[in-house]
Design a protein that fits this description.
By secondary structure, the protein is an alpha/beta fold. It contains 9 helices and 8 strands. Strand 5 and strand 6 form a beta hairpin.
Length: 213
């Protein structure tokens, strides 16, 4: 089963992707992580990506498509995986649909009002050591100023987690990614969850869906 998590920046899909990758024991494929991994390994695709990034240009959609396809066909993903950050456009959704994959597909959309997203992102920070994401109001560390996972005590905020940048990213999401939803709804694979809840409540909704997979 390929489970696709779709949601606006700050909707919580990244956090939940990591949780359910571990819980379901299936790989978590994040396009950002995949791109960085290829560059680090200096693979053929990685060198292309590095050359493009060095010019300040955006990564071509064709390269992202190729990278996702390669990883979906790896043996470790044949039993299922979670896709996080892909597809981001209707063209990418159609490309993915056209691949000859043996796995079934389910899409989970993290539904949350725009004003709640802005508040979430502005209050977001992460562990400087392991990258675990926290939120001041919704998901602080269990022990104040101590990371739940690695027990680090240093935390950082992203420089682009400000209202102006967030609004730009949200506009991009609603212009390019949101139109994917009717495509998957027509295919009968779309499930919407209420992402405007505490982290554990969102997890419970996903677990109920996962039982039907």
């Amino acid at each position: 089963m390929i489970i696709i998590f779709i949601g606006a920046p700050g909707s919580g899909k990244g956090t939940q992707s990591l949780v359910f990758s571990q819980e379901l024991k299936i790989p978590h494929l994040s396009t950002g992580d995949l791109l960085r991994q290829e560059v680090k390994q200096q693979s053929e695709i990685g060198k292309k990506i590095e050359d493009i990034l060095s010019t300040g240009a955006l990564i071509f959609p064709e390269i992202v498509n190729e990278l996702v396809e390669i990883n979906l066909k790896k043996p470790e993903c044949l039993g299922g995986c979670i896709l996080d950050g892909y597809p981001r456009s209707l063209d990418q959704a159609k490309y993915l649909d056209g691949l000859e994959l043996s796995q079934q597909m389910k899409v989970i959309y993290f539904d949350i009002p725009k004003d709640k997203i802005i508040a979430r992102i502005i209050d977001r920070y992460s562990c400087a050591d392991c990258g675990k994401i926290y939120n001041k109001a919704l998901n602080p560390p269990k022990i104040e100023n101590v990371c739940d996972d690695c027990h680090g005590t240093a935390f950082v905020c992203r420089s682009d987690d400000n209202e102006k940048t967030v609004l730009t990213r949200l506009d991009e999401f609603y212009d390019h990614t949101y139109p994917i939803l009717p495509f998957y709804e027509n295919k009968g694979v779309l499930h919407k969850i209420n992402a405007d809840q505490a982290v554990n409540q969102v997890q419970n909704e996903i677990r109920l869906l996962a039982k039907n997979y």
